[in-house]
Write a structure and sequence with these properties.
Four copies of one chain form a homotetramer. By secondary structure, chain A is α+β, with helices and mostly antiparallel strands. Chain A is built from four helices and five strands. Chain A has one domain: Cytidine Deaminase, domain 2, CATH 3.40.140.10. The complex binds zinc ion (ZN) (4 copies). Chains A, B, C, D: Its cofactor is Zn(2+).
Chain lengths: 138, 138, 138, 138
Amino acid sequence: MSALTNDQIEELITQSLEARNFSYSPYSKFRVGAALRTVDGKIYQGCNVENASYGGAICAERTAFVKAVSEGHLRFLAIAVSCDFNQYISPCGICRQFMNEFGKNLEIFFVNADRTYKRAVLADLLPYAFGPEDMPSK
Amino acid sequence: MSALTNDQIEELITQSLEARNFSYSPYSKFRVGAALRTVDGKIYQGCNVENASYGGAICAERTAFVKAVSEGHLRFLAIAVSCDFNQYISPCGICRQFMNEFGKNLEIFFVNADRTYKRAVLADLLPYAFGPEDMPSK
Amino acid sequence: MSALTNDQIEELITQSLEARNFSYSPYSKFRVGAALRTVDGKIYQGCNVENASYGGAICAERTAFVKAVSEGHLRFLAIAVSCDFNQYISPCGICRQFMNEFGKNLEIFFVNADRTYKRAVLADLLPYAFGPEDMPSK
Amino acid sequence: MSALTNDQIEELITQSLEARNFSYSPYSKFRVGAALRTVDGKIYQGCNVENASYGGAICAERTAFVKAVSEGHLRFLAIAVSCDFNQYISPCGICRQFMNEFGKNLEIFFVNADRTYKRAVLADLLPYAFGPEDMPSK
Ligand SMILES: [Zn+2]
Ligand SMILES: [Zn+2]
Ligand SMILES: [Zn+2]
Ligand SMILES: [Zn+2]
């Protein structure tokens, strides 16, 4: 069902778990890691970066996305997200909105700390999305 | 199916359309209005407020929510959202995330400029939401 | 030096302290209140409203601003900000950016829980601001 | 006056101008680039990444910061910011707030498209900053 092989999924999981290590989260103490795979097979890691003004926080998923975009990538296959617990962490609505800009077919893996996971597709996590096609100015 | 009567829905629609008038949207020129009904029947209107730094923008829905919260309301029944076009405008992911903090059963009306509408429930617009129950610090 | 009389300053302080009561801040447990005075003498109160996704948080100052804008106000004289401590709380950079959209001469009162305060002007808190005049699209 | 040599400043300027090329800014059509130098001499490039929901936009400066943080860097010397015009573009308040988390002595270069520039220090761009030391929970 996934466009990724099992080995590619396992690699993405490994990299999302590793990405937690650089999390800057002194306020929530909730470390999150993400790993984003581009259509051409490159992987970008991201972690959450918080701020004393809570609204300034940037999630792990968006960190991975801006890294990739700033190096010339605009098309993505899949992202894995993990934290330090077994709770199938899913992207927040802010990140879903951010991801939606780059395509609705993105596969998303909610990864437990023990590597078990659930799989979803962005279109199902943000139905009736408000996207680029809704903005007359584009 | 809705917890609101037809008259209450029509009133919410009227107020969301009226709320567009105070939209501050010089950058997108995309006026949005929202009207939020609390469980005890009070209605708060909101519009989008943009900023030269685009990331500073606050949507109409969140404007309505913070108005209500800052006056002591934490439980809501429904929100209507409208713009200047017939495009069934739906809340962005940022707003869905913001709303989710206050309950998953919120009814959401996507309102066209001609008053026709679609109805949805927040739980269906943000499945597998990352919410208060996911934060260990709470 | 202030455009406000002492009585007007005291009233703004009182309302900013009162506004803390509706703060929704289960994550930081840091209650903030704000009171914003329009040029025509109306006062809007705001509190911080947080979210499980920390980046979704909206500060007390921005709450007060969107309330006022959504009711037709675009010109402001002064804002007072307070928390539960004696620490001369000042607006975060996000809020300074948001305020800057509506004029650089805004007076800002950093209010202690014991009502003592410092006064500043937005232009001094956000020098070389990036504002509407910097955006070619406006 | 700068902790950087003239050659290092010129390199940072070059990289900030180059970083504009991957800007994703279909809404503002305002391309911004940034280059951030860590204390140990590594440079991270960032561009602005916008969203159909304007509030989802992430500026070039924050892109550069989260890239660096997600690769283990927490201490920085300087950042250069540029756009396509000669207007001494300065970081918005959101970015100043984000930067402040990592130290007040950061040098900031406002770079014109023709490579001329102004220099500032973060402490002067965000006086009375609300920072980590103001949050009791840290
Ligand atoms: Zn997120
Ligand atoms: Zn929204
Ligand atoms: Zn703030
Ligand atoms: Zn910025």
